[in-house]
Amino acid sequence: MEGRGASWPNITPYRNSDIKNLWKHVPRSVKFLILIFEDTDSFIGTEVMLDLHKLDRVQLRCVPSQNEAVFKLMGVSTFPSMVVVETDMTTFPLTVTDKTRESFRKTIKTFLSSRHISIPKDELLKSHEAPQTMEIADLLSLMAAEEESKKKIDIKQMGDVVFYVDLERAVSYSLKHEVPSHKLISGEAFTALKDYLNILLKYFPMSSRTMKVLDNLKSSILKHTKEIRGEKVLEYLNKFDDGEDSVFTSHDWIGCKGSKPQYRGYPCSLWTLFHTLTVNAVIQNQQLDSLEVLSAMLGYITYFFGCEDCSKHFQEMASRSMHEVSSPRESVLWLWRAHNEANKRLSGDSTEDPEHVKIQFPSHNTCLLCRNKDDSWDVDEVINHLNQMYGKQNISYL
């Protein structure tokens, strides 16, 4: 099977909100990108890509309906739909007569013919010649494995990048697993839950759909004046986040994916989430309460974080120095210092992923300016780096 991956289509859904990345890694021979916008349970895009995978002047890419930023930017209002993107970023829709695989193929063929691009006869299979379902499934499995391998390489080369999938999974796991695991939530724990939802709604860079789900969840929880059962929180969340357009899906980790299942994952994503919240809170409101996000984070970790040892150490760090935070900027730096302290403590620990060792962040490679000549931190440059990394405008929707 050597070389088999060269002509395979990229079946990974395009989740990035920035269309400038559409042409990244696209061969120079490609003159047109055809984006197929479809619901998450649709296979039309994948089927059409398999049918046309040998074309060298056009490339197809699926965009899931959850990528609200891109489909709004492209003026898409129905699914499935197609949009052509030229190399100069000119875009225009391709209208299909009906929502079938055959109709999409014919529409693409007509468009390519109008641009004098020939299509080998064996590329456009007739319906009765289409591959069997099992063959498609096998091919998809092989292609997915290759894409996963390529993704690991790309992610390492990308450096310090925050992925929306990791943030979403952190919120999902916290609300679907950690909070519901408590039989009764009352007193300070109940306050911590409400504070956690407050900062998510204020500073989490979410889609309008996600905001609606969390806002409905918060409103339902607030109807309970003093306490709530953990299972009731899950019941509410499932009620509001149900159906085909479910927000909290089971996507795998990307930036927080460990080399083995027991490594990284949720703890990594929770750190990422709270860094993102502290940074975006400051960007959004320079006059905010300096401890708003940190206090909510402390409350969540104290009452809900499943790692008791981690919770204990975080509370110790908070008791030592969190009260010294006197400005929004300092809240970002306090969490950065706390994270590095945790990394130093856990370096070489049995929980450390050997392929993602604990370092003092950011590294020399990702931020050369963050350190002075004597290797001490230049906090102004550190702040710039954190703002660049965790600011909502730079989050990757890969």
UniProtKB/TrEMBL annotation:
<feature type="domain" description="ERV/ALR sulfhydryl oxidase">
    <location>
        <begin position="259"/>
        <end position="361"/>
    </location>
</feature>
<keyword id="KW-0285">Flavoprotein</keyword>
<comment type="similarity">
    <text>Belongs to the quiescin-sulfhydryl oxidase (QSOX) family.</text>
</comment>
<dbReference type="InterPro" id="IPR042568">
    <property type="entry name" value="QSOX_FAD-bd_sf"/>
</dbReference>
<comment type="function">
    <text>Catalyzes the oxidation of sulfhydryl groups in peptide and protein thiols to disulfides with the reduction of oxygen to hydrogen peroxide.</text>
</comment>
<dbReference type="Pfam" id="PF18371">
    <property type="entry name" value="FAD_SOX"/>
</dbReference>
<dbReference type="InterPro" id="IPR036774">
    <property type="entry name" value="ERV/ALR_sulphydryl_oxid_sf"/>
</dbReference>
<protein>
    <recommendedName>
        <fullName>Sulfhydryl oxidase</fullName>
        <ecNumber>1.8.3.2</ecNumber>
    </recommendedName>
</protein>
<dbReference type="Pfam" id="PF04777">
    <property type="entry name" value="Evr1_Alr"/>
</dbReference>
<dbReference type="GO" id="GO:0000139">
    <property type="term" value="C:Golgi membrane"/>
</dbReference>
<dbReference type="InterPro" id="IPR041269">
    <property type="entry name" value="QSOX_Trx1"/>
</dbReference>
<keyword id="KW-0560">Oxidoreductase</keyword>
<dbReference type="InterPro" id="IPR040986">
    <property type="entry name" value="QSOX_FAD-bd_dom"/>
</dbReference>
<dbReference type="InterPro" id="IPR017905">
    <property type="entry name" value="ERV/ALR_sulphydryl_oxidase"/>
</dbReference>
<dbReference type="GO" id="GO:0006457">
    <property type="term" value="P:protein folding"/>
</dbReference>
<dbReference type="Pfam" id="PF18108">
    <property type="entry name" value="QSOX_Trx1"/>
</dbReference>
<dbReference type="GO" id="GO:0016971">
    <property type="term" value="F:flavin-dependent sulfhydryl oxidase activity"/>
</dbReference>
<dbReference type="GO" id="GO:0003756">
    <property type="term" value="F:protein disulfide isomerase activity"/>
</dbReference>
<dbReference type="InterPro" id="IPR039798">
    <property type="entry name" value="Sulfhydryl_oxidase"/>
</dbReference>
<keyword id="KW-1015">Disulfide bond</keyword>
<keyword id="KW-0732">Signal</keyword>
<keyword id="KW-0274">FAD</keyword>
<dbReference type="GO" id="GO:0005615">
    <property type="term" value="C:extracellular space"/>
</dbReference>
